[in-house]
Amino acid sequence: MNFSMLILILSGLLLVVLGLYGLRLYRNYQDSELLSEVTSKHRGTGSERKLVLQMLKSGRSPLAVYHDLYVPQDGGGFAQIDAVLATPVGIIVFEVKDYSGWIYGNGSHTKWTQVLAYGNEKYRFYNPIKQNRGHIKALKSRLGENGYVP
Q: Which domain holds residue 114?
């Protein structure tokens, strides 16, 4: 193989790599533009934004998707709701968690436990099912004057 052939092959490989990188950049740009129809790219967590993006890519209208809502609660304070989807049959409220390791808990436990490092690290966190029930209650309270919304 002569030098000019090697240069030609390396140039071709470089063009392929740059093309793939450019395609990735373009897809990231498209995702960012789609996401900006609902929320800021810095608002909430990456997992929440990923969920919002999946809803939009599945054909949900940006007008039906809400991200990172703060809803006043009875008795003061606010409920921070990760995502809400308005559908013709009702409102779906999402609580997003992005944990690894083993997760222990059930719907009736107040706290759940995350176990990492083969049992050497344990972290407790509030039950996301109960957390979401509180979010739904706060949202229902705010929507009360609009009639029954499932």
A: 62-146
